[in-house]
Amino acid sequence: MTSRLEWTTIDCADPRRLAEFWCGVLGYVVYEDKGEVVGIGPDPEVPDAERLADLRRGPVVPSMSFVRVPDGKSGKNRVHFEITPIDGDQRSELDRLLALGASTVDLGQGENLPWVVLADPEGNEFCLARSLAPGEFQL
């Protein structure tokens, strides 16, 4: 018996703003907006039965929920996302993410690493890893 990661929930001050940022990063769309909770994912038009069958078959692209909470972020994330460009180089993707509202973060990670540490508009850290685009990916 196993389980599947279906979605990730992120506490935040402004669910809609953070949802729009991550939609831009991942190419997702908002499928639910209740004000205090905003859900985003890759395809809201997939029927529930098909989505459930996909989940049972194996890992799928998870959805995300953003929930308004009264307290702000404090300290470094204990869990973070690793974002990987799939159709361009890492530098171009970095420029795109910065234009969407990401910022670079120094957590003491050092220099000349194959990833870049960033933060979303509410300070949640994530990493931009190497590109998987044709001609870019190297082991």
From TrEMBL:
Residues 8-128 form the Glyoxalase-like domain. Transmembrane segments: none annotated. It comes from the Bacteria. SUPFAM superfamilies: Glyoxalase/Bleomycin resistance protein/Dihydroxybiphenyl dioxygenase. InterPro entries: Glyas_Bleomycin-R_OHBP_Dase, Glyoxalase_6. It holds the Pfam family Glyoxalase_6. PANTHER family: CONSERVED PROTEIN (PTHR35908:SF1), HYPOTHETICAL FUSION PROTEIN (PTHR35908). This is Glyoxalase-like domain-containing protein. It comes from Amycolatopsis keratiniphila.
